[in-house]
Amino acid sequence: MILVTGGAGFIGANFVLEWFADRDEAVINLDKLTYAGNLQNLASLAGDERHQFVRGDICDGELIARLLAEHQPRAVINFAAESHVDRSIHGPGEFIETNVVGTFRLLDAVRGYWNGLEGEAKAGFRFLHVSTDEVYGTLAADDPAFSESNRYEPNSPYSASKAASDHLVRAWHHTYGLPTLITNCSNNYGPLQFPEKLIPLMIVNALGGKPLPVYGDGMQIRDWLYVADHCRAIMRVLDGGKVGETYNIGGWNEKPNIEIVKTICAMLDDVRPRNDGASYAEQITYVTDRPGHDRRYAIDARKIEAELGWRPDESFDTGIAKTIQWYLDNGSWTEAVQSGAYREWLDTNYADRTG
Ligand code: NAD
Ligand code: DAU
């Protein structure tokens, strides 16, 4: 049995589904169900006794201690976080609360539980913290990709809060001996991603006849990884990662944002042409840049390949085709997550960006 936090969000839900495709070990799934968490993501597990969902907050140390005592998991994987950079710019408080205070409360409850374990249960226990490449800051065009030994130089409230959480995990290992693992991954895309992030926003807006808002000159570079590949990498690290170590995970797939948006438009032109015969690319609109916008991220994923034999299975072409098809087939999912709060968010984020 393992305990997963944030397992109703994009990566967490994909992880739980991939986990059961790979093995039968039970999962306790603790999620607060913020705007980003959605039980519909786990609908295919209804009635499946291997999966137990608990609504709760990682800031609630007593709840976590109770769950650990009751279920005796052999590992905890922490996905729970506030994850959207633009939201962290408009309102950093919740990022500090969940990503920093929440990780602290979770670590402390896990430490208490782990201290009480004995023998093999204690030696085999793992706390895996899921983090981001954004902790390393930004790269110039000709800089080498981020390796595990890069300095932490976070630039947004989101990345600063994730950097703080990574430091806490590191300290709980060095000071208390908690058997931790950290993964720092690049930009994910795929099914179940909330349409506030670049790829799903562009697909959903294109199909809805809305503008496709490209920040600044659109030449910022991200290293895109299909979400199932990230999930498989996490399993690999859980199974074989060295305690106390960090593993960078990336797609070997750097692309400027504008190229991503144009690729989506061209693919939609093929599979779901606009009624007027024009290209979706006509909806592209350049808008005011994100404050403090990091120019380039790129992951050097050689360590996880050399030590654990992981490489991504999907190319960008296959991954983006699957993703677009998923959004075409799951319009009701998109409609369901586009609540009043979602529309309010779009008004807040894009109101002052026009022109
Ligand atoms: P997401 O925003 O889609 O999902 C986050 C989930 O955490 C939601 O289900 C939400 O309800 C839950 N949650 C939030 N606050 C909580 C709290 N206080 N207690 C319990 N649950 C809470 O995020 P995601 O994109 O799935 O990211 C998951 C993790 O992976 C995050 O830690 C993020 O930093 C990291 N990450 C994301 C990416 C990416 O490209 N999306 C890349 C690298 C790392
Ligand atoms: O690098 C990993 C990180 O990737 C994760 O840690 C974060 O949780 C995840 O949100 C993501 O952060 P980004 O800021 O890179 O992702 P986002 O999808 O918000 O933006 C990707 C790029 O696209 C970025 O350069 C900003 C740009 N963008 C984004 C939106 C939403 C636009 O040009 N227009 C938009 O409307």
UniProtKB/TrEMBL annotation:
Cited Pfam families: GDP_Man_Dehyd
Any one GO biological process: nucleotide-sugar metabolic process
Entry keywords, A to Z: Lyase, NAD
The organism's place on the tree of life at top rank: Bacteria
Molecular function via GO: dTDP-glucose 4,6-dehydratase activity
Broad enzyme group: lyase
Protein name (database record): dTDP-glucose 4,6-dehydratase
Chain's gene name: rfbB
rRNA-binding in keyword set: no
Enzyme Commission code(s) on record: 4.2.1.46
Stated family: Belongs to the NAD(P)-dependent epimerase/dehydratase family. dTDP-glucose dehydratase subfamily.
NAD as UniProt keyword: yes
Organism listed in the record: Sphingomonas lacunae
Domain NAD(P)-binding: 3-323
Cofactor(s) named in the record: NAD(+)
Swiss-Prot/TrEMBL catalytic activity: dTDP-alpha-D-glucose = dTDP-4-dehydro-6-deoxy-alpha-D-glucose + H2O
